[in-house]
Amino acid sequence: MGEKSVRKKQFILKKAREVFAERGYKDVTMKDIVDACQISRGGLYLYFDSTKEIFLEVLNMKEGSESGEEDVFTKAISENASSSDILALFLQEQKKELCNQAESLTMATYEFFFANKLPKNENPLKTQFDGAVQIIEKLISDGVKTGEFVCEDPKGASRNIMYVLEGLRIMSQTVGITEKAVNKEILYLMKGLLKEA
Amino acid sequence: MGEKSVRKKQFILKKAREVFAERGYKDVTMKDIVDACQISRGGLYLYFDSTKEIFLEVLNMKEGSESGEEDVFTKAISENASSSDILALFLQEQKKELCNQAESLTMATYEFFFANKLPKNENPLKTQFDGAVQIIEKLISDGVKTGEFVCEDPKGASRNIMYVLEGLRIMSQTVGITEKAVNKEILYLMKGLLKEA
Amino acid sequence: MGEKSVRKKQFILKKAREVFAERGYKDVTMKDIVDACQISRGGLYLYFDSTKEIFLEVLNMKEGSESGEEDVFTKAISENASSSDILALFLQEQKKELCNQAESLTMATYEFFFANKLPKNENPLKTQFDGAVQIIEKLISDGVKTGEFVCEDPKGASRNIMYVLEGLRIMSQTVGITEKAVNKEILYLMKGLLKEA
Amino acid sequence: MGEKSVRKKQFILKKAREVFAERGYKDVTMKDIVDACQISRGGLYLYFDSTKEIFLEVLNMKEGSESGEEDVFTKAISENASSSDILALFLQEQKKELCNQAESLTMATYEFFFANKLPKNENPLKTQFDGAVQIIEKLISDGVKTGEFVCEDPKGASRNIMYVLEGLRIMSQTVGITEKAVNKEILYLMKGLLKEA
DNA sequence: CATGAATGAGAGTTCATTCAT
DNA sequence: GATGAATGAACTCTCATTCAT
Fold first, then answer.
1. Alpha-carbon span B13 to A53, nearest angstrom
2. Rounded mean pLDDT of A17-41?
3. Residues 19..48 of A with a Cβ closer than 8 Å to B: which?
4. CA–CA gap between residue A190 and residue A28 (Å, rounded)
């Protein structure tokens, strides 16, 4: 596959991402992607065999390019920001993602993993969740040391935060949720850590 | 619609519920329900026009019959149980539901509301969520009064609890979750309220 | 499946038979049969799932209705015809079939069994062949007893006859063969048995 | 077309022959041959326009290279072998071919001529058959002269032999046939000629 | 000459939906 | 009411064939 093909493949993935973001996973057909890309029916099959295959590559692509979390962390940490600032930053990022439904793969991702139960060690949802829990736990622990946070169970608190975020995410996709409501929850989480400070 | 028809309709809904519990929402076709009910294709159309219509009625049916929450509350409250006992009971009920994936409509419900964005005031997910938040808030407030609980923001705490439960629910459907993990989260929630100030 | 359906199924098989007779097995698509029957695409699938399934039923149908061999034998034998007359009759029947390419499933059958190797005990080609060999052997043996035939190895002779017929059949489908040529071979076979009479 | 092209064409034909031997004629696509040759799709079209064209050239190639029959005859005859020995040799060669289904084009050839009815004078199957009949007739006649064979109708006998062989061939492709069964038929044919009058 | 990306026709298959009985 | 045969739209997937490079 030449360089040109690689670019075409990237093009298809980009268009497919838009389709998945707009319509979720289950409803998307190969034809939908063909139409979005303005290519021929058979043409798509030169690159991908199924929507499943495409979606998996879109998911991987996402992690590589959309970054966000990591970048923010990396930058904030390298700038010696305080733990509470970094955590606040992280929560702000999550809020952005929560509110930006149009470009988000959240719904498609949930639909995909409803239909495709991957083993836990290969499940990116699991991996991401656990990774985030560890990072937040570290932040909280650090914050406790510096006196920014008060927390007897950093691990429990970080899991609590992540489950709340997950709850917000699914609620935003099913019942809709306002930015204000998200703010309220984030504030509650932060207050819990800053309590009695 | 005669009495016989009503019974037939209930029969269809019961069978349809099983199908939705097993296969989710999107994958279920009119044919699947016809097969499960062992009735004729045309026969189903006498009662329902689409899987969407069926699913909505299944959802309503559910609230009526499956109860659980209400019953437990009603009974516990009428028995003058303590607030902490009632809350613990509620969380135990939630755990049961979380772990009993086979009979649960969770996945189907999520899929349904991904595809059908109802206005908030008609969205049963929203209604249920808000209702539960209110009940829990009341419980916490009562518990604070009796000295069982320590909590500065009962409303915030109850919302936090509900989002965590929602987070557990979606995680249980996408990455899978052990009973132990659920226990840990519930324990964390209870400890947060019982914490000696 | 009601009586009407049975008739429709028979109708489809009849039309399918014509298609197979005209075009062989491999080239025939579900669409071809749909077109021949003037029914809808989906309609055919109510009765059959594949051309393979249809062809197998056509083959069975054939044995039931087209008769020929059995009838001729039955009649001839019941009429106390001589062995040589019966054998001659049989060979005449074979000739008819050989020359009537238009309505014959020969080519389709060969194509089918090229693609679908059935176990010998289920292979109708094998069954028919062996059955015919036995009948002919009996005829020859009887003929030898009555002095009509001279033959030291009736079993071998009957197999020889059947292989020649098979050879004529395949040649008629691949290079074409004239009635005269068939006559010549049949004559040779009969002369071999009547030799020195 | 340069020398290099000729070699490439030969290479394609060789690979195509393997494909046809393995899969018959009808199932083979241009893509299959492209894959077997490891050349580009477009590349194949520089040499051949269709599988039909390729198969015809494979058939011609076969006669040229695979020889066997001719060689055996030529050698045997030039060595002054007896007629019965040469005939036996010929039948042994036929048996080998019959039993070696894997490398044989038999099925593909039948399939091809089912689909492509060539005029008799251009039909290689016809030509080969008639050629073989003549040779065998000559052998038998010679054998009769030397007293090796007893046969009143060498032409008829040789045609009989060839039709039996054709019958064995088609049976071996459709119902399968053991080496033992082939031996039995060959023995029967030889005995017919050696039979003491 | 050679490549391989691209096209589009066409086959298979499934279902929502209708309708005569 | 109830049946289930029938229709036709829509989707998946595969190839022969072409053509710019």
1. 35
2. 97
3. 24, 26-27
4. 39
Contact B175 A120 (CB under 8 A): yes
Q: At what angle do helices A69-78 and A83-99 cross, to 10 degrees?
A: 160
Classify domain B3-61 at the CATH topology level.
Answer: Arc Repressor Mutant, subunit A (1.10.10)
Q: Give dist(CA C8, CA C165) in Å, integer.
A: 36
The boundaries of every CATH 1.10.357.10 domain in chain B are 67-194
Strand E footprint nucleotides (protein C-beta < 7 Å)? 1-20
Q: Which two structure tokens, joined as six digits, stand for A106?
A: 């959240």
pLDDT of res. A141 = 96
Is the pLDDT reported for residue A171 higher than 50? Answer: yes
Q: How far is CA B140 from CA A67, A168, B134, in A?
A: 40, 22, 10
Give the long-range contacts of residues B123-128, CB within 8 A, separation 24 or more.
B123/A174, B123/A175, B124/B59, B124/B60, B124/B63, B125/A171, B125/A174, B125/A175, B126/A175, B128/B63
Report the SS3 class of residue C66: coil
Q: How far is D2 from chain C (nearest CA, A)?
A: 36
Q: B41 vs A15, B27, C193, CA distance in Å?
A: 39, 17, 65
List, run by run, the mean pLDDT of 10-residue segments along chain B (197 residues): 83 97 96 96 96 95 56 71 92 93 93 93 93 95 95 96 98 95 97 79
CA torsion angle D75 D80 D83 D89 (round to 10)? -30
Write a three-state SS string for D72-92: HHHHHHHCCCCHHHHHHHHHH
CB burial readout A118-128, b (16+ within 10 A) else e: beeeebbbbee
- Domain D67-194 belongs to what architecture? Orthogonal Bundle (1.10)
Q: What mean pLDDT value characterizes chain D?
A: 90
How many C-beta neighbours within 10 Å does residue C135 have?
19
d(CA C16, CA C105): 11
Give pLDDT, residue A102: 84
Residues of A in contact with B160 (CB under 8 A): 160, 164, 185, 188-189
Q: What is the pLDDT of residue D67?
A: 46
Domain boundaries for CATH 1.10.10.60 within chain A: 3-62
Residue C197 has pLDDT above 50, yes or no: no
Instruction: Convert B100-109 to b/e letters by CB count within 10 Å (16 or more is b).
Output: eeeebbbbbb
How far is Cα A140 from Cα A154, in angstroms, rounded to an integer? 6
Q: Which residues, in sequence order, are CB contacts of B28 under 8 Å at separation 6+?
A: B16, B19, B20, B51, B55, B108
Residue A184 confidence (pLDDT) above 80:
yes
Structure tokens at C136: 């002919």
In our burial notation (b when 16+ CB lie closer than 10 A, e otherwise), range B125-146 reads: bbeebeebbebbbebbbbbbee
Q: Measured between beta carbons, which residues in chain B are less than 8 angstroms from residue A107?
A: 114
Could you give the CA distance from residue D154 to residue D176 in angstroms, rounded to a whole number?
30
Minimal Cβ distance to D111: which of C114, C120, C188: C114
CA distance A127 to A131: 6
Q: Which residues of A146-175 are buried (b: 16+ CB within 10 A; e: fewer)?
A: eebbebeebbbbbbbbbbbbbbbbbbbbbb
Per-residue pLDDT at C71: 64
D-chain CB neighbours of C111 within 8 Å are: 26, 111, 114
**Distance from first CA to last CA of chain D, Å, rounded?**
61
- Tens-digit pLDDT profile for residues C69-79: 556 667 777 77
Nearest-angstrom CA–CA distance, D164 and C168: 9
Contact B12, B48 (CB under 8 A): yes
Q: What is the fold, at CATH topology level, of the domain defined by C3-62? A: Arc Repressor Mutant, subunit A (1.10.10)
pLDDT at residue B93 in the model: 93
Which residue of chain A is at minimal alpha-carbon distance from B193?
A: A192
